[in-house]
Specification:
Blueprint lengths: L1 H10 L47 H66 L14 E5 L5 E6 L14 H10 L11 H14 L9 H10 L6 H17 L2 H11 L9 H9 L8 H9 L13 H17 L5 H10 L12 H15 L7 E5 L3 H22 L3 E8 L4 E5 L24 H10 L7 E4 L18 E4 H7 L2 H11 L1 H11 L20 H13 L2 E2 L5 E6 L4 E4 L6 E2 L3 H17 L13 E6 L5 E8 L2 E8 L11 H16 L23 E2 L6 E2 L22 H11 L2
Parallel strand pairs: 1-3
Antiparallel strand pairs: 1-2, 3-9, 4-5, 4-14, 6-7, 8-11, 9-10, 12-13, 13-14, 15-16
């Protein structure tokens, strides 16, 4: 139709004005002016903007033109919409493509970056051939003479237990609450990490960790607890290496034996012993859940610190075990009902003083040890408890009255074995061991060595010495309350603890003689050879002076006090066993018998009456230092010697706490229990010596202070006699010196 319209338009006759002309539609005469239409554009305009020529139309043209325009418009719109849709499709596909493209690019570069960081991390770490799992720090198990555990010491606090030996609930509880995919990942768990990230984002805080047990083990074995990206990368690399190097069970066993579980316990065995008093082999389900719950926050969830929080955390662990199929709901419910009550805390137990001393001595016996050890001590558990109770009861009842805050007690048998040792009232409050470390003035408790020297140089228990004021090179000792009895026997002077008599004897014998006598029986602390040594002005430790009394109790044989009987590895290999008999005889039998006669009078008729036992003979000596700063009683039966000290750490005076008033009472409390299963025997050597003729002194029964008694006529002391004794060799003295120090 369009071509037809073109033909019609071509054949159309144009109207003419005047005469038709072949040259065009219009003809102009000469002289006519042509005026262009007003609507024609400027001839200089762009060609594309020039409108089509407007021609006159006939009526039949109007329909054709409008029809053509009407038909042309939809075609244009259809073409335009197709082009727009095509462009939209191309634009949409281009956006997705670009997103995919750049995502791939970013992933590639991210992987390259991570690989570079990991490569750098590995490059800065030691060569893989040099990587070694450090040995587990050895544990030292300290037991008493019967094999009962006193304490676990070392860096772990428990022994290493194999996975097959420990209670099955322990590994199950730990895996359930800490790393449920432990047996399915390769050391680093992307699934667990993603789950932790989602959980933490949802909670708005860190409520779940993403580290696997292997990563935690790597951190514990090799790394410092720094929170840095480098440390986390090293942890991941080491975790991969551990997974390559060890089996899953080996990794779990290492983890359970090394992880920190609070209260100084490293490993599940240490935790089981610390909180429940049993081995990791014997814990039940509730106890295992409690131990596993400690991993989140050992101090917060420790059953000894907060039983309620510990129980709530154990419920969470039990629920995780049920969820993982390790236990049934009924088993978990029963465990929750039973609970896991912890042992009463023993942080204040005096047995810790024993354990500390063992650890101090250990390097001298075993220079290096890389395996768990068992150290057998000489401690008697029953006597140890009796000593602790006696110290605590005395200080609780009498401490405020006498203004005494601290005490120490040590008991030694005739062989030198330390059977009980208490270094203070409360170990948790003070770990200073006053029994072996505190050097205090013994006061009159030193006087037996003065009288022993006198007996060995010719004096007898009935020798008379005048008790009166004396001045020795400007030094003027005084008696208690300035009482003087005049002429008295040595037995009376010792029983009454007369200072002037002890000073006079020392001046007569020579201070160096007294010092040598004291050293021979076991005193190794520094002593000044001047007359004041008679009154115990030199400083000694409770263990030292107690050991020096033992020759009186055992018949005159010198001893070296000892605590460690033997040391073995966990598999029974003997590393040390005590041998040797000590220095030998240091006091003659007659001198021993004489001293025992005199020292028993101190208890029966003198200042130490509160130490008297009803069923056996007792001997000993009280002691009080200047201004009542120290109160002592050192006494013995035939078989056990015990020394007691009371005072204040800051050396402030007590409120007239004397050896006879307080320490003798404490000694009696201890020895009454300690001697309960010991046969009663006479003191050694007393059968060789006649009893003293007359002590001549009586004492009050309430406070142990002396009252005036009859005086005996005086005479001059007999000349000194040489008493043969076997002195300790230089080597033996050196051992004593190393034991006690200077």
């Amino acid at each position: 139709m369009r071509s037809d319209r073109r033909d019609i338009r071509r054949d159309r006759a144009e109207p003419t004005f005047e005469t038709p002309s072949r040259e065009g539609d219009f003809a102009a005469r000469d002289g006519d002016r042509f005026t262009p239409p007003r609507s024609l554009p400027n001839s200089r305009g762009s060609r594309s903007a020039r409108p089509e020529r407007v021609e006159p139309r006939f009526d039949d043209d109007r329909y054709d033109e409008e029809t053509e325009m009407a038909e042309r418009q939809p075609r244009r719109r259809r073409k335009s919409s197709k082009r727009s849709a095509k462009r939209a499709r191309r634009s949409s596909m281009g956006l997705v493509g670009r997103l995919v493209y750049w995502s791939i690019v970013l992933c590639i570069w991210g992987l390259i970056g991570v690989a570079g960081i990991i490569g750098y991390t590995v490059a800065t770490m030691p060569q893989i051939d040099d990587w070694k799992v450090p040995a587990r720090p050895p544990n030292v198990e300290i037991v008493d003479a019967s094999g009962t555990i006193i304490a676990n010491r070392g860096d772990t606090g428990g022994e290493e237990v194999t996975l097959s030996d420990m209670s099955r609930f322990l590994p199950e509880a730990v895996v359930a609450i800490e790393d449920r995919r432990f047996y399915h990942h390769f050391g680093v768990d992307p699934i667990g990490l993603s789950r932790a990230m989602v959980t933490n984002l949802a909670a708005g805080s860190v409520v779940q960790g993403g580290s696997t047990l292997t990563q935690q083990l790597a951190k514990n074995l090799f790394l410092q607890p720094d929170r840095t990206l480098e440390r986390k990368l090293q942890e991941a690399v080491l975790a991969l290496w551990l997974e390559w190097r060890f089996s899953k069970d080996e990794l779990l066993e290492m983890y359970l034996n090394r992880v920190y579980l609070g209260a100084g316990a490293y490993g599940v065995d240490a935790a089981a012993r610390r909180y429940f008093g049993k081995s990791a082999r014997d814990v039940n389900l509730a106890e295992a859940a409690t131990i596993a719950g400690l991993l989140k926050a050992p101090s917060r969830y420790a059953p000894t610190n907060s039983p309620k929080l510990a129980a709530e955390r154990a419920k969470v662990v039990l629920a995780a075990m049920v969820d993982q199929g390790y236990v049934s709901r009924d088993e978990a419910a029963r465990a929750t009902a039973v609970g896991a009550p912890p042992l009463p805390t023993k942080s204040g137990s005096a047995a810790n003083y024993v354990a500390d001393w063992v650890m101090d001595l250990l390097p001298g016996y075993v220079a290096r040890y890389r395996t768990d050890l068992v150290v057998t001590t000489t401690i008697d558990a029953r006597l140890q408890v009796a000593a602790e109770n006696a110290i605590r009861a005395t200080l609780d009842k009498e401490g405020v009255k006498y203004k005494v805050s601290q005490g120490a007690l040590v008991a030694v048998d005739n062989d030198g074995a330390v059977k009980a040792l208490v270094g203070g009232k409360d170990y948790a409050a003070s770990q200073f061991d006053r029994a072996i470390e505190a050097r205090r003035q013994p006061g009159s408790a030193f006087k037996p060595f003065v009288y022993l020297a006198a007996i060995e140089h010719g004096f007898s228990p009935d020798s008379i010495v005048v008790d009166e004021p004396i001045s020795i090179n400007g030094w003027a000792p005084k008696n208690y309350e300035n009482e003087y009895l005049g002429p008295v026997t040595l037995t009376t002077a010792l029983a009454r603890s007369l200072n002037t008599v002890a000073a006079r004897l020392t001046a007569t014998l020579g201070p160096d003689t007294v010092v040598q006598t004291a050293r021979r029986v076991g005193i190794v602390s520094q002593l000044h050879d001047n007359p004041s040594i008679a009154l115990g002005t030199g400083e000694v430790t409770p263990l030292e002076i107690t050991a020096a009394y033992v020759p009186f109790a055992n018949g005159g044989w010198g001893i070296i006090p000892y605590l460690v009987e033997d040391i073995r590895t966990k598999d029974g290999k003997v590393l040390f066993h005590r041998q040797g008999d000590g220095p030998g005889r240091v006091i003659s039998e007659v001198a021993v018998g004489t001293m025992n006669r005199m020292l028993s009078t101190v208890v029966t008729d003198g200042t130490g009456q509160k130490a008297l036992l009803s069923d056996r003979p007792v001997a000993g000596k009280t002691g009080t230092s200047q201004d009542f700063r120290d109160a002592w009683f050192i006494g013995y039966t035939n078989g056990l010697t015990a020394g007691v000290w009371l005072g204040n750490d800051d050396n402030t005076p007590t409120k007239k706490a004397t050896g006879g008033a307080l320490t003798a009472l404490l000694w009696n409390r201890f020895m009454t229990e300690a001697a309960r299963d010991m046969p009663a025997r006479p003191l050694p050597g007393v059968e060789l010596v006649p009893p003293p003729t007359n002590v001549g002194v009586s004492f009050g029964e309430t406070d142990g202070l002396p009252m005036q008694g009859p005086q005996l006529p005086g005479n001059m002391p007999a000349p000194p006699l040489n008493v043969p004794v076997t002195e300790a060799s230089p080597a033996e003295r050196g051992l004593l010196q190393r034991l006690f120090g200077n």
